Amino acid sequence: MLNLQPLQTEHLLAAVELDQSCLGGLWTLEGYRRELESPNSDLLGWIRSTDPGTQSIVGLGCLWAILEEAHITLLAIHPDYQGQGLGQAMLYALLHSAWQRGLERATLEVRASNQPALSLYEKFGFNQAGRRKAYYQNPSEDALILWRNGLHYPDFLETLGIWRQQLGDRLSSGSNLISSAILSEISLESLPKISSEPAGNIQGLT
Ligand SMILES: CC(C)(COP(=O)(O)OP(=O)(O)OC[C@H]1O[C@@H](n2cnc3c(N)ncnc32)[C@H](O)[C@@H]1OP(=O)(O)O)[C@@H](O)C(=O)NCCC(=O)NCCS
After folding, report:
1. Staple partner for 81: which of 15, 30, 38, 58, CB 3.0–4.6 Å?
2. pLDDT in tens, 160-172
3. Residue from 109, 135, 136, 185 carrying the catalytic annotation
4. Is the Cβ–Cβ distance between 41 and 93 less than 8 Å?
5. What lines the ligand 1 site, CB under 6 Å?
6. Whole-model pTM?
7. Atom of ligand 1 nearest to the CA of 86
8. Helices and strands (H and E) in the chain: how many
9. For residue 206, how many other CB atoms are within 10 A of its CB?
10. Phi-psi category of 123—alpha, beta or left, where left has phi over 0 and alpha has psi -120 to 50?
11. Which residue has the CA at smallest separation from atom 19 of ligand 1?
């Protein structure tokens, strides 16, 4: 079963493993632990449960709430699971968390050549607002700074609802054998649902 849910202490070693294979070791175990403990951080994972009671992590996402801004600090899907809609679902869940916290806009940085990520962010209404020269190393590359405004506007609730519907449709229909095998494991119930008011405080996804 694949569930999108907030990470817990028992998931942290698997999170570091995925981080190393997907992001080249962005955060250490201690770094992930700090995220779990911070009330200003939402750390989410696509958790795969297999028999008997073994869990692995195939996707990660994190945001920091800073004043009225959501800083998306992490988004990664295991290569074997990419291209199935899991990244899109993770970004939806992060923006849902930002909305629940009552935040007004979201921002992130991305390598200028990262076309899959740029295409994903564009779908969710992110626009380029700046560029940091040679921000990344190995290889050296500019970062593009993206922003998504209007999370606190009334029509954002409707937008979240449309995204959730589209995700549900996508995740419930596999187009080939590999994706069918993955998609049949996904719990659509674990996608955050839309309620009429932001809670202003997130303890777990609802
Ligand atoms: C970026 C990333 C999270 C996307 O996750 P994913 O699960 O593969 O993406 P999805 O299947 O949900 O695709 C959603 C959209 O992303 C874009 N996308 C995903 N893969 C793409 C590719 N190979 N080429 C172009 N666009 C792509 C498309 O717009 C896609 O929508 P579509 O399927 O309707 O065309 C994933 O590629 C990843 O983990 N990359 C490595 C880490 C990384 O770069 N993270 C971002 C750091 S800022």
Report:
1. 58
2. 999 999 998 988 8
3. 109
4. no
5. 22, 75-77, 82-88, 108, 110, 114-117, 119-120, 123
6. 0.92
7. 7
8. 6, 7
9. 11
10. alpha
11. 116
